[in-house]
Structure formats: structure tokens, C-alpha cells
Amino acid sequence: MSKILAYAAVAALAAAPVLATHGILLVSDQVDGVKAPQYFDSFYENALREAYPKTKVTYAVWDHYTQGEPSFEVLRKYKVIIWFTSTSGEAPASDPVRGNITLSPSEQASLAAFLGRTPGTTTVMLSGMYVAWNCVADAVHEKQFYKPLFSDYLKLNYPRDNFYNWIKVEDDWKLVGSGSDPIIKDTYTINWRHHKNFPDQLEPAPGGAASAWWEDLEQKRHHRGVIRAEGKKSNGGTYKIVLFSCPFENILGDGKRAEVMKNFLTWAKPKPGSEIGVEPASLGRVKALFH
Predict the structure, then answer these.
(1) Which residues, listed in sequence order, are joined to residue 99 by a DSSP beta bridge?
(2) Inter-axis angle of helices 254-268 and 41-51, to 10 degrees?
(3) Which of 55-59, 112-116, 210-214 is predicted least confidently?
(4) How far is CA 42 from CA 52, 163, 220, 257, in A?
């Protein structure tokens, strides 16, 4: 296929409906505010494929760098949003220039609307080491800004230790869950892949839930590396949201990441019924063929 025909095919697929799927959208957002971006798209796509090896999990991909912010009108077509940000957002939310770039105010509003207004069960996975820091951390007053997505939906209680008692995560730290948790059911070894390694520590506020601890090489536990929350919508549906400040790609082992992804999808309960493989009409997958 010539390059002209290839890009014509991409353009046609961009306009094509992608909803004969499990309703999953991957948002690759790893560039904002980063001088040397690291890309981990394959870790998420491979985990989706391997989570159900005898089936096919269909999904679409949104490339934030080339396509810009996905609006609520885009998000509302799906049931599950997996939004990953790598090392984006090193500055606190109180930084007047670099704050709120990991998730802009309009993106936060769109995700909150997706969780609160889209009918049925809707689920968001946020995965990034600085998502909370860049969106809610008031480093001037050492407190948490109120943001509806984080305070009302995620039920985040941002620990003050993030301002003066950082953790430096290294290889062989652990993400410690429990058998009763729907997502992090076990203890997972960390293979830290990022250039930076001072990630967020998290705690849930009342109404939220802790999924996993950070555990260092001396087996000392710190705050949480994964928290989650769920609740009922005014329209009768259910919303669910989880934040990995231990970015998903740092879980060691393809099989272990697939296991966690399967747990997440089971918790999310995306619409069943379609065959999986990678969705042929996914713009992100088609673009990958021609780069």
C-alpha cells in the first residue's frame, strides 16, 4: 500500500465508528511538559491482548500528542477509559505555568462528566507517577486543592508526606495488595522504568478504598501506590475510578501486567459480546502500521 493510500485509510478509519467494541479507549498522554518523553503504549496494549488470550479485547487508541484533548463527546462513546501519562507533570498544581498539564482543567471536567453523566457503568483508570501531584498539590501551603474529579469521584486524601518526605522507588520495590482487593490481589515486584523515581504517595478519603501499598527494599510500607473508588450516579448508573501512582508499566512481567489488567477489566465490567483482537477500526492501531 502506498503512503498516500495508507494515510487515506487512516483518515477514513478516523471517521469510522469504533463502538462495535468492548467500549475501551486508551488515551496515550505522555508528552505534556516532558523534555524527553518515554512511551509505554505497548505495555497497555499487550496487557489488554494477553488478559483474555482465548478471546479478543477490542479497543481504540487516542494519541493525545497528535489529536489533542479528547472531549466529553469523544469519551462518552466508551465505557472504559485507560489514560496513562508516564512522567508528565513533574511540577505541582500550584505552579502557575506547569501545573495542571497532566490533566488540564477541561480534561478533568470531561472525565468527571464521563463518570457522572454517561449512562450505565463507566470506569476510568489513571496511570501516572505525577497525576495527583500535578493536579491537586498546593506546594505553597502544603495541602490538597479541591478538584471534583479527585475529591468527589476518586476520594483522594493527598498525604502531606508528598511535600517533604518523598519516596525514591527503585527496582525490586513491591506493590502490595490483598486477596480481597478487586484489582491488586497479590504482591507485585516493581521494575522501575522511568527516568524519574519520586512518585506520588496516595491515601483514600472516606468513601474511597486503598488497593496497594508501596513497600521498599527493607520491607517498610509507605503510603499507597494504588487507590480506587466507586459510587452511584444520579441517573442510576455506577462510576468507578482507580489511580496508579505506581504506573502500570512498572509492574514486572508481561503475565503479571496481564493479570492486573484482567482484574481491572473484571472490576470495570466493560460491555461483553464482541470478539477481541485488536479492533480493526482502531485509528491508533492502524497508525502504528505505517510508522
Answers:
(1) none
(2) 70
(3) 55-59
(4) 16, 32, 32, 12
Phi-psi label, residue 212: left if phi above 0, alpha if psi -120 to 50, beta otherwise: beta
CA distances from 20 to 86, 163, 243, 259, 276 (A): 29, 45, 27, 25, 10
Rounded CA gap, 254 and 246, in Å? 16
Burial class (CB within 10 angstroms; exposed 0-12, middle 13-18, buried 19+) of 96: exposed
pTM for this entry:
0.87
**Domain span including residue 40:** 3-288
Cell of 149: 474529579
Residue 53: give its domain's CATH number.
Answer: 3.40.50.880
Nearest to 30 by CA among 133, 129, 149, 154: 129
Provide the number of structural domains found in the chain: 1
What radius of gyration, in Å, describes the C-alpha atoms of the chain?
18
pLDDT averaged over every residue in the chain:
87
Among 124, 125, 90, smallest CA distance to 257 is for: 125
Return the DSSP state at 152: I
Residue pair 59/99 in contact by the 8 Å Cβ criterion: no
Helix (H) or strand (E) holding 29: none
C-beta pairs of 228-231 under 8 Å, 24+ apart in sequence:
228/154, 228/182, 228/183, 228/204, 229/153, 229/154, 229/155, 229/204, 231/153, 231/207
Question: 150-206, pLDDT tens digit by residue?
Answer: 999 999 999 999 999 999 999 999 999 999 999 999 999 999 999 999 999 999 999
Amino acid making up residue 263: N
Rounded to whole angstroms, the Cα distance separating 127 from 109 reads 18
